[in-house]
Specification:
CATH topology of the largest domain: Aminopeptidase
Oligomer: single chain
Strand order of the largest sheet: 1-2-6-3-7-15
Largest sheet: 6 strands, mixed
CATH class of the largest domain: Alpha Beta
Structural class: alpha/beta
Number of strands: 16
Radius of gyration: 23 Å
Shape: elongated
Number of helices: 8
Number of domains: 2
Strand content: 15-25%
CATH architecture of the largest domain: 3-Layer(aba) Sandwich
Distance between the termini: 39 Å
Order of helices and strands: HEEEEEHEHEEEHEEHEEHEHEEH
């Protein structure tokens, strides 16, 4: 679970499965408690390189008292596979391992190279996983990246939202609470700022031309800016006026809206008050792969063959490691068996979806490596 995101207990399971399928693997790490795994399957002759990417760390279980199945043990029931991380993303990890070993059996029919990567530190945007791996090992960059991060409902994410983290801090005079004035305390002034920037949640993007046709998914959230104050703090004693109030802001950016644009809007809303500071902590813009790119087309054809219908194109709401490859100029898509928008209590994946994903990954890779 992340944190702490230790994957040393998961790695041997992945390694053993790959080895049983005739695929050698190795560990790449900057923290021995959080290793990454790399495996290559080389075909005959030279050609392009397809990379599978999944992460081994999972989200926290949340309120464990609400779970109706064992959290750390797989439960198979009613066509579902339950357990922590099944949707995000043990199901996709298993499907990619299976696809890798199946393709390895027929490596004499492949051109180029298939690479399987299983990483740590994805859940917390950490530096030990894909960031370290891509820096240390250029041989995993590849020509195409298939991420097992499902956007939910077996849809195909050819884009994902960007991210902007801002800290807003207000300072003011203290004193006894009996002297508080309307709108003058640090807490009240911070609340006013949060009220003004909440309007950003009504802002929608104009979709870039190369992904025209992509949808925002449920409630069109993928095409709307979302802004939330994740934490708010101020003061320390009930009967005293707080001299400082602070909010940590999380903004998710659809394709067509930049981090710089939203940061400027927040600063304009906050800087009406001279005692306010706005600090940019982390940011990246939305990223995508064109609808007519060979990777997108190959994935759609594989899904249509396996599932009987083409998938819907959506913008994935949370970030993923697909962005790390796109930042290097490598086209990437996200497709996986996560059944809903996000994991939670009684996390699960549909068993048939896991199997279908393995087929889709294998067919997509085969099509890209062999040119159709």
């Amino acid at each position: 679970m992340s944190p702490p995101g230790h994957t040393a207990g998961v790695a041997p399971i992945v390694e053993t499965f790959l080895s049983a399928g005739g695929v050698a693997s190795e560990r790449v790490f900057c923290d021995p408690d959080a290793p990454n795994i790399v495996a290559h399957v080389d075909g005959v002759g030279t050609g392009r390189q397809v990379v599978f990417n999944a992460h081994m760390d999972t989200m926290q279980a949340g309120d464990e008292s609400r779970w109706t199945v064992p959290i750390l043990t797989q439960t198979r029931r009613g066509g579902r596979l339950y357990g922590l991380g099944m949707g995000n993303m043990k199901g996709a990890l298993a499907a990619m391992c299976l696809a890798t070993t199946v393709l390895a059996r027929h490596r004499e029919k492949l051109r180029g190279r298939l690479t399987m990567t299983a990483v740590c530190d994805e859940v917390m945007f950490g530096e030990r996983g894909a960031v370290h791996l891509l820096g240390a090992r250029p041989d995993v960059h590849g020509d195409f990246l298939i991420s097992g991060e499902g956007p939910g409902f077996m849809e195909l994410a050819i884009a994902e939202k960007g991210l902007l983290w801002l800290d807003v801090e207000v300072k003011g005079d203290g004193g006894h609470s009996s002297r508080a004035l309307t709108g003058r305390t640090a807490v009240a002034r911070l609340a006013a700022i949060l009220g003004r920037i909440d309007q950003i949640n009504s802002m929608y993007a104009t979709v870039p031309l190369e992904i025209t046709g992509v949808t925002g998914g449920e409630n069109n959230a993928g095409l709307r800016v979302s802004l939330s104050a994740g934490t708010i703090s101020g003061g320390g004693v009930r009967s005293l006026i707080a001299t400082q109030a602070r909010a940590e802001i999380d903004v998710r950016l659809p394709p067509g809206v930049t981090a710089a644009e939203i940061e400027q809007r927040v600063r304009e809303a906050a800087n009406r008050d001279p005692d306010v500071t706005v600090t940019a902590v982390k940011a990246w813009d939305a990223n995508w792969t064109a609808l007519d790119h060979p990777l997108t087309l190959a994935t759609v054809e594989a899904v249509r063959t396996v599932r009987g219908a083409a998938p819907a194109f959506v913008v994935r709401l949370p970030g993923s490691d697909a962005r790390r490859w796109r930042d290097l100029g490598v086209p990437a898509i996200c497709y996986g068996p996560q059944p809903t928008l996000s994991a939670g209590t009684d996390d699960f994946a549909y068993e048939q979806d896991v199997v279908d994903c393995a087929k889709v990954y294998a067919r997509t890779a085969l099509g890209l490596l062999n040119g159709g």
